[in-house]
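A.,

Following up on our hallway conversation. Structure tokens first:
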């Protein structure tokens, strides 16, 4: 038996600036992810904490800290906040790995797999944002972690658009792209970016262009929500009622987010 990691990474190169990831099943049948890094491989569990551990008996460090804050105990220590920071960074690595394996699945024409990994990646985006919010609320976020927020908002919108398109919901994809652009624009403004800097932001440009491109590609001048808002503004309540019914039918036809 050799402990040389070169045996594990042989044939699995990772050019600088790129990500390589793969999904696999562990020896005990658990779903795992491997993320290729410069000097080796990072392995993570797909569900729960990336390291597969619990924290003080609870599923995550955030769950423990929120529990202690609700009880207003004096038990929290700097180590708990450091653990939350570590959990945030690990979950962000997993988010990137999941997005990568989703792209790999799409290239292999495995749409079911791609949808599954995208949903997991979206879950991790929300986990990262919640962890980051808690850290910032307690002024415990380091500069490197705080700078994750724009990337997380961008990826949430991008992956959401991708999932809606795969599921045949073009209007939802348009609205996700445009809402994501508005959310990212607001965040960048809050972070001190002026209008020119925001217009030059690659993520913001991508989301704005994606919304416009999807409107052209699918021939959508106005989405159902936009038509409903216009009917309400014009006090055309009969049309508004019909549009609400149409929206309700469409939402019933959609699978649940985790389906």
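Then the amino acids I'd put at each of the 259 positions:
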């Amino acid at each position: 038996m050799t402990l040389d990691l070169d045996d594990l990474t042989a044939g699995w190169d990772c050019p600088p600036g790129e990500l390589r990831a793969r999904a696999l099943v562990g020896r005990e049948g658990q779903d795992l992810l491997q993320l290729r890094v410069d000097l080796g491989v990072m392995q993570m569990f797909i569900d729960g904490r990336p390291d597969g551990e619990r924290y003080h008996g609870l599923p995550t460090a955030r769950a423990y800290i929120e529990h202690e804050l609700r009880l207003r105990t004096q038990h929290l220590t700097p180590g708990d906040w450091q653990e939350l920071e570590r959990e945030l960074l690990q979950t962000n690595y997993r988010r990137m790995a999941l997005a990568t394996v989703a792209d790999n699945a799409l290239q292999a024409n495995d749409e079911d797999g791609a949808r599954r990994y995208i949903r997991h990646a979206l879950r991790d985006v929300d986990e990262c944002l919640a962890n980051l919010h808690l850290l910032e609320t307690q002024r415990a976020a380091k500069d490197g972690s705080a700078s994750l927020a724009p990337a997380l908002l961008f990826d949430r919108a991008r992956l959401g658009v991708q999932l809606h398109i795969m599921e045949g919901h073009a209007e939802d994809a348009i609205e996700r792209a445009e809402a994501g652009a508005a959310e990212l624009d607001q965040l960048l403004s809050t972070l001190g970016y002026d209008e020119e800097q925001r217009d030059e932001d690659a993520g913001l440009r991508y989301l704005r262009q994606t919304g416009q491109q999807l409107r052209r590609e699918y021939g959508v001048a106005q989405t159902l929500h936009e038509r409903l808002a216009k009917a309400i503004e014009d006090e055309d309540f009969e049309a508004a009622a019909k549009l609400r019914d149409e929206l309700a039918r469409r939402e019933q036809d959609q699978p649940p987010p985790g389906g």
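The first strand starts at residue 20 and ends at 25. Curious whether your intuition agrees with the design.

B.
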